[in-house]
Amino acid sequence: MYDFSTDSAACARAVEAGLSDYLTGPRLSGPGPAADRVVAAMRHGSLEGGKRLRPLLVRQAAAIFSVAPEAALPAGLAVEMIHCYSLIHDDLPAMDDDDLRRGRPTVHKAYDDATAILAGDALLTHAFALLGEPTTHADPAVRIRLVTELALGAGAGGMVGGQMRDIEGEKGGFSDGEIGIMQAMKTGALIRASVRMGAIIGGADARALSALTAYAEAAGRAFQLADDILDVTATPEAMGKATGKDAEAGKQTLVSTLGLDGARKVLDNTVNEALLALRTFGPKADGLRATARFFASRKN
Amino acid sequence: MYDFSTDSAACARAVEAGLSDYLTGPRLSGPGPAADRVVAAMRHGSLEGGKRLRPLLVRQAAAIFSVAPEAALPAGLAVEMIHCYSLIHDDLPAMDDDDLRRGRPTVHKAYDDATAILAGDALLTHAFALLGEPTTHADPAVRIRLVTELALGAGAGGMVGGQMRDIEGEKGGFSDGEIGIMQAMKTGALIRASVRMGAIIGGADARALSALTAYAEAAGRAFQLADDILDVTATPEAMGKATGKDAEAGKQTLVSTLGLDGARKVLDNTVNEALLALRTFGPKADGLRATARFFASRKN
Q1: Are residues B30 and A128, on separate chains, in Cβ contact within 8 Å?
Q2: B77 contact A CB<8A
Q3: What ipTM, to 2 d.p.?
Q4: CB atoms < 10 A from the CB of A78, how many?
Q5: What Å distances lie between residue A191 and A187, A188, A270, B35, B53, CA to CA?
Q6: Nearest residue of A to residue B35 by CA position?
Q7: Which residues of B touch A150 (CB under 8 A)?
Q8: Fewer CB within 10 Å of terminal CB in chain B, N or C?
Q9: Is the CB of residue B28 less than 8 Å away from at least one CB of chain A?
Q10: What is the distance between the alpha carbons of residues A181 and A197, in angstroms, rounded to a whole number?
Q11: Keywords, A to Z (chains A, B) (predicted)?
Q12: CA distance B261 to A174
């Protein structure tokens, strides 16, 4: 019987330990010794926090193919480093200008803007260095597929492109369809990459990869929808960050266009869509099923 | 007979065309369509400019192993994208705050700070996406080695670490040795990665790779030293950017500690060191030899 809270807590602990091991001077050294200040800022921006949902998705997708959690961890760390870099850059004054993240000062507040830019750049860069290490997967062909998957998920047609569209959308009117595309890229692309990377590690065939992609795309929409709903309904204390920001900024979300009840209904349908995509998989996909349900029920 | 100006001009043209082909919506698409604004800013920050010295080094190092220029191009484009992203982020108000680059408005001036941050992030990310493509090299094991080489050269123990040290050094006193480490990382690491990536594409054995690494490290020092000298001696018109900035900022360089004549003497010695590292290679290394000499004689 899959237990979500046990597995997700074990995954979060493994991610915390794995990031703490990797983000040290010796591991990050290159032609020269890693600069202490940038290492410290990278740690500040990635340790002690977050639900580590993306590494959990890598782990759960890999579990379908009987891959042990440890074997899915390095790829999970790489995705998490991309997620953390994006938060560091998003929080900058030139972007969302946030002072707090997970209840602590953001990296540019704890250090300065230049250090935050560099720490983000370094986390992004070392995500790929980590994927290059033989410990990530014995087969170089698998490692390079992970690189491609993560880069396309994080790039101009993925996460970064979604952030760009989000900024542009704040200025002009977005249609519902455009909100959907923006969100599919901004949040969805990395969730999709996480699930697919787990599947790639597991040696999924084309049919399984396609089913898991459909799961991931629905799960990503559910995650974002829940986020938009929580921005309206949750307290800053529960979230560890400011809430009500979307409405304050006059930002269009599916909650602002469909209303809270309408958005909740869409959320339920979307979770069901994610579950349906897993129908050909047996109990080994219970992890992914639990995470899709968690996305809809989470309180922070 | 190797002709530097012919080969470097041919390389620059190939890089310009290669970047222009790659940096388009269809090539950069991922789970979603690439965001137009970020693609435009990526192009602004990387097309029509620069001497493309890093791709030239990839090409020249690969030429030692009889690799055709076209076969070394994709890796060269990836290094150049890393170089261009670093310039975009360096120019930001939070970093060097430069308005002009190659005689044109910097990306944050032509667009805005948020777009410049995202365009830099996207160029960095897609450098690795490009290395992942089978057209970069048929063997996935070679492609993943290129990823590792580039990531470590660009990361916290390479270029980004060097930028961090540079910012820290502006505040406090640097010893000559610390200046050397900073420069070896800030500029040298990517030059080193370029040469090594060419060697890796060429299937260099350990001994050849080691000799070429020694060449690259000396060439990188020569490049930086020439840059520091030009900051003192060249006009802004010749450089296409502000000069005299180091002295104005009270920044320590080897010119400020050794004087102009002393720095020129060290530069000559460093070029000879680079040439000496190539002694076991025949005329196929003439390209790298010419580039080392060019570093010492360039006027901008």
Answers
A1: no
A2: no
A3: 0.96
A4: 31
A5: 7, 5, 15, 19, 38
A6: A161
A7: 128
A8: N
A9: yes
A10: 22
A11: Isoprene biosynthesis, Magnesium, Metal-binding, Transferase
A12: 61
Chain B neighbors of A151, CB-CB under 8 A: 125-126, 128-129, 132
Instruction: Tell me whether A121 touches chain B (CB under 8 Å).
Output: yes
CB contact under 8 A, A132 and B124: no
B39 vs A contacts (CB less than 8 Å): 156
The verdict on B74 touching A (C-beta cutoff 8 Å) is: no
Among candidate residues B300, B179, B180, B297, the one with its CA nearest the CA of residue B230: B300
Query: Do the beta carbons of residue B243 and residue B231 sit within 8 Å?
Result: yes
How far is residue A253's CA from residue A249's CA, in Å, rounded to a whole number? 11
pLDDT in tens, B100-132: 998 899 999 999 999 999 999 999 999 999 999
Given A30, A31, A158, which is nearest B32 (Cβ)? Answer: A158
Largest CA distance in chain B: 56
Which stretches of chain B drop beneath a pLDDT of 50?
none
How far, in Å, CA of A14 to CA of A5, rounded? 14
Phi, psi (deg, nearest 5) at residue B166: -60, -45
How high is the mean pLDDT in each 10-residue block of chain A (300 residues)? 96 98 97 97 94 97 98 98 98 95 94 98 98 97 98 98 91 78 93 98 98 98 91 75 70 81 94 97 97 87
| Domain definitions of chain B by residue range | 4-297
**Distance from C-alpha of A29 to C-alpha of A119, rounded to nearest angstrom:** 14
Chain B contacts in chain A segment 93-112 (CB below 8 A): 93-95, 112
The amino acid at A68: A
Token readout for B41 is: 């800013």
